[in-house]
Specification:
Elements: H1 4-8, H2 14-20, H3 37-40, H4 48-54, E1 59-62, E2 69-72, H5 76-82, E3 86-89, H6 99-110, E4 119-123, E5 128-138, E6 144-151
Antiparallel strand pairs: 1-2, 1-3, 3-4, 4-5, 5-6
């Protein structure tokens, strides 16, 4: 199961993270992606196409200009992604049951009430990252996000 100790892999313990960093100070940590195999093996996360097919509500898309925003459904998102658009899917955990145990463990580790966490998915042409709201560093939009899984 992926919890704080798995994410930080010896850089800091879960207790140290809670004491020194959470929720006001960023912790930047790079470690082998293999520590997240239990997340990366979730069938809906094996490819962007499968993730998009699993997502049952409109998908937000941003163009490279940073100003043009559209909502599309399903495979239209893949077509725009291939043209350089960025994909953002809110609360993908509603459609991907395998993420539930990861969220529950992180909520427990962070002392959050059950159901407080959710997982968003973001894909740009260069990268795919899965963000967990209210954990870790402060993002450009003022929310606290943490990378739960990623890859190229």
């Amino acid at each position: 199961m992926v919890g704080l100790n798995t994410l930080f892999q010896g850089k800091v313990s879960a207790d140290e993270f809670l004491r020194k960093y959470w929720p006001n100070h960023p912790l930047i940590h790079q470690a082998p992606i293999g520590r997240l195999d239990s997340i990366l093996s979730i069938p809906e996360l094996r490819s962007l196409e499968v993730l998009v097919d699993s997502y049952k509500t409109p998908i937000s898309m941003w163009n490279r200009d940073g100003k043009t925003i559209r909502e599309v459904k399903g495979r239209e998102a893949i077509q725009l992604y291939r043209k350089g658009w960025t994909i953002y899917m809110a609360k993908v955990d509603r459609f991907i049951p395998g993420i539930g145990p990861v969220l529950k463990q992180l909520e427990k580790d962070l002392g959050l009430r059950w159901g407080a966490g959710f997982c968003n998915a973001f894909a740009s042409k260069a990268n795919m990252v899965f963000l967990k709201k209210h954990i870790g560093r402060k993002s450009d939009n003022g929310r606290r996000d943490c990378v739960c899984a990623g890859g190229r």
